[in-house]
Design brief:
Blueprint lengths: L2 H20 L3 H16 L9 H20 L1 H15 L4 H16 L8 H12 L4 H13 L8 H12 L6 H23 L10 H7 L2 H8 L12 H22 L6 E7 L6 E4 L2 E3 L1 H6 L8 E7 L2 H19 L4 H5 L2 H26 L1 H14 L4 H11 L3 H14 L4 H6 L14 H9 L17 H25 L3
Antiparallel strand pairs: 1-4, 2-3
Length: about 475
Amino acid sequence: MTLTMIVQLAIVLLALWVGSRYGSLALGAISGIALAILVFGFQMKPSSPPTDVIYIIIAAVTCAGIMQASGGMDWLIQIAERLLRKHPDRITFLAPLCTFFLTVLVGTGHVVYTLMPIICDIALKKGIRPERPCGIASIASQIGITCSPIAAAVVAFVTISGENGFAITIPKVLMVTIPACLIGILMASLASYRRGLDLDKDPEFQKKIADPVQYTYIYGNNATTLDKEVSKESKLAVYIFLGALAVIVLFAIFPGLLPSYSSIKAIAGAPAVDLGNGISESAKQIAGAGIVLDGVTEQVQTKLQMNLVIQIVMISAAALMIICCKASPKKAVGGAVWQSGMVAVVAIYGIAWLANTYFDSYKPEMQAMLTELVTKYPWAMAFAFFLVSVLINSQGAVVVSMLPLAYSLGIEGWVLLGIMPSVYGYFFIPNYPSDIATVNFDRTGTTVIGKYLLNHSFMMPGLIHIFTSTICGYGIAYLFHALGVI
């Protein structure tokens, strides 16, 4: 690595670190400062922003936000709460499964804020140390992102893989990530089952509740959503949302159902065309102008792409909820789902654009440094995914910024699919909103961010999950690849 390359990398990493300290919109916005320094200061050619992924996030988050505004999310939370209260002694296993599948359905882990106080309340009333279910439940709420058909990380993986010659569909991605992540959740739940002292044997907790004020604070509240009345319109909104997901999966499984249209495509390897007066156009530019030119461009029949399918279906479903379910668009904009989704859009916009600009400029150098390692141990890319995720709190941003680099190193698509669970590493430093909220929801104080920052309640279940799910994902992907499924 040259000194200039190291300095520029330090600028990128510094922007990510500062952005993570401020959080929220700062993650993407501060990346813009680093991008400006690279482009204007070092004359580095900027890459194209990841617009396809951003459009899909906007469509999916709009649909999920409208469903939340209709009251449909309350119904989903009620279903989960009934299951948990019916089997309170199994809360350590059932709680993470509930948060996981909520994220899988909605595409964002921020839907669990209503459920987390209920998990704490059930554990407390049953005498179970809340840290046990809460730690893994918070982790599971983020794990579900790599298993959701409408999550940015999954859609970005499919889109970028297709551009790099690995034709994979969303259902095939989920065939690997869902079982791998469920095994990871199970192992982390087993490790959490007897974690720490029971509440009746914990001297610190017993000392705390000896104070009448603290006792009232801890035991005096009752968190529940079962007293909320869910309207028919709210339930209809959920059915519309699930129907939209079913349509997306159906088109992904049976692409022959998609409409075809005529388009102009550049012929691979076609030279630039001299238009005279010193002006030349590439084959791609000529195709973009809709011109058919022998030996340069050709007319082909193209299937409607899945990224457009997701956008059309999600936006249409959102419109149906507004019309048929009395969902308020203003309320949706003020909801947690829509707001967190827009934060993710800005994060991916800034972070991925910055990272792609840097990696594209030094692709030959990166290939020279890493090719030997990834040729011998292609799964080692999982460590890079994890480390980048520790810095940027977005799995979608990790996929968008790192996957093109991974393909340029010659790593096969099935390998990258197998190690996809490793794109979740932002539990390592406990500054993510879901982790902080979980600590605050646990009135007993057993779910903590430790004195030394890294000794927190989410570290153990998080590491166990990442280790287990990545190994299992790699094994499942290898099996499917050997069978010719992927």
